[in-house]
Amino acid sequence: MGKVKERNSLAFKITAFAAVLAIVCTCSAVSADSLKVDPSAQGNYTSIQAAVDAAKAEDSIFVGPGTYVENLKIDKQVRIWSDSRKPEDTVIRAADPAKNTVEIEGNKVSFSGFGVEGSEKAQISLTGAKNCYINNNRVQGAEFGILLISSQSNTISNNNITLNKKGIRLENSDSNTIQDNIIAYNYVFGISLEGSITNFIYNNYFKNAENIEEKTINADNLWQSPLVIRQNIVKGPYIGGNFWADTEGKGYSQTCVDGNSNGICDSSYNVTGGGTDKFPLFPKVPNAVKTLDNKLNSTATEYEQTLAKEKIKTTVETPVNATNGTKKPSTEETPGPGMVTAVLAAGAAYFLRRNR
């Protein structure tokens, strides 16, 4: 009889504990709210910053299509998603071009589905941030597309990063994952690392005059994942390293050999400055690369037009020799630098002019 009572008592305690746990979990789930932002005042807020200021940790903010002219600062754990998940119809444009468009200083922030533009500094910056998810954004037209400073364990994925001076820049930022991004037609470098190690960089589509800034620190980062059977960014059968193209059609992935037709180049790619991509991607499905390039056609056109304009300005503004009044030789009058150097010089000139 005593044993029966003991068992009944234990069962009661377990049931009571389960009930308390369920209540705690329910309360926790209920405490997270969803806030709605819409430019036509159909939501709770008409500006994203107002919603961020009002939000509690773990709240979700859903943003309706429109253009939001503001510099956004996120310093708490929130999820900010566009309703449409389409960066082309939900745009955040910097109100003050001298400041970053979106600044993230909190942990576990999720930011997805936006076109981000208008800043002369960084379109998206993370400072002291951890475990954030930045994905499915269109980021263009700044000194840095996405900038990480002293930030760890963040995931930057599935973003379209174009027409910046440097596509992605990491400063003293370790153990971040950069995957599934299109990093193309940036004027100086696709990616740049300074004092940053153990970052995991794979399955990205690089297509820039210079894909990587030459730094010895590059060797302290990982440029591929283990081979996994899953469709990669250029529709090949394996996830592995990155697709390395350039604007002249002479990139490593564009010219390498794939003897066994597995969609991976037969030889490793030596990363500029140090490090190795052991599994560089090969265009096993040529039409997939063509489709991707076709989507970048307007970006490529803008890129070429900007470089052409800067070349003309550089020639027209060639300084006069102060001693004899003669004009210093223009780029047309003397042998110029190589194509890559010219592109870098023109790209740098473009951003120097913007920042004056």
Question: Could you explain how this protein is built, in words?
Answer:
The protein is of the alpha/beta class. Among the domains are: 32-222, Pectate Lyase C-like (3 Solenoid); 298-354, no CATH class. It is 24% helix and 26% strand. The chain is built from six helices and 26 strands. The protein has helices at 2-31, 48-54, 252-255, 286-295, 297-316, 339-354; strands at 34-37, 60-63, 66-69, 72-74, 79-82, 90-93, 102-104, 110-112, 115-117, 122-127, 133-135, 138-140, 144-149, 155-157, 160-162, 166-171, 177-179, 182-184, 189-194, 200-202, 205-207, 228-229, 238-239, 243-245, 269-270, 276-277. The radius of gyration is 25 Å and the shape is globular. The relative contact order is 0.07.
Which residues form runs of ≥5 with pLDDT under 50? 10-29, 327-341
The largest β sheet comes out as: 8 strands, parallel
Query: Beta-strand level of the residues, as a percent range?
Result: 25-35%
Shape: globular
| Rg over C-alpha atoms, rounded to the nearest angstrom | 25 Å
Total helices: the number is 6
Strand order of the largest sheet: 1-2-5-8-11-14-17-20
> Tally of extended strands?
26
Q: Mean of the pLDDT scores? A: 87
Roughly how much helix do the residues carry, as a percent range? 10-25%
Structural category = alpha/beta
CATH uppermost class of the domain at 32-222: Mainly Beta
- Say which CATH homologous superfamily of the domain at 32-222 is assigned: Single-stranded right-handed beta-helix, Pectin lyase-like
Q: Alpha-carbon distance between the termini?
A: 89 Å
What CATH calls the topology of the domain at 32-222 is Pectate Lyase C-like
CATH architecture classification of the domain at 32-222: 3 Solenoid
